Amino acid sequence: MDLRFDHLGVVAKSLKQGRKMMQQALLVKDWTEVYEDTLNGVVLQFGFDQSGMCYELLEPIDQNSPVFPALSGRKAILNHVAYRVQNLAASASHLVAAGCAPTSKPKPAVAYEGRKIQFFVTPLWFVVELIEAWEHRHLTSILPEAAGPAARG
Question: Most CB atoms within 10 A, among 13, 28, 90, 94?
Fold first, then answer.
């Protein structure tokens, strides 16, 4: 199974609040556009720090969002580690054989142009996201305001 690191997912009450904290504490300054992904229950945005580390800020759309319990319980705020893969089915089979459990079936993701994503809980109780988008690159703007009127917060 070939993996390419993509991002660390972080849950925030709002994207605006999350961007502010990430900019102040970790010097994250290069941000993508804002994506509203109703199928996956989140509004999200990717940002990069000076070292090139990519963070995905996740704001729950509502109380039914799969990330909402992280906010209400103040647990799993550092929510998941994500990797791009060439073949989601083959990579998912590898994780299952290693003892990981899928949390849902593969779903298309707006931030990856409809390519499929799937989440797994590992035997060490952390979450891994697989993204079937091997060559994907996140496009950024320097200022969060450049995300346009869709930016929430």
Answer: 28
pLDDT score for 142: 55
Could you tell me the residue range of the domain that residue 47 belongs to? 4-136
Asked if residue 115 is part of any domain, the answer here is yes
Identify the residue with better confidence: 41 or 77: 41
Question: What CATH code is carried by the domain that includes residue 83?
Answer: 3.10.180.10
Dump the DSSP string for the chain: ---EEEEEEEE-S-HHHHHHHHHHHH---EE---EEETTTTEEEEEEE-TT--EEEEEEESSTTSTTHHHHHHT--SEEEEEEE-S-HHHHHHHHHHTT-EESS--EE-GGGTT-EEEEEE-TTS-EEEEES-TT-----BSSGGGG-TT---
Which residues does 20 contact at the CB level (< 8 Å), separation at least 6? none
pTM listed for this prediction: 0.85
Q: Tokens 């969060």 — which residue?
A: 144
Split into its structural domains, the chain has a count of 1
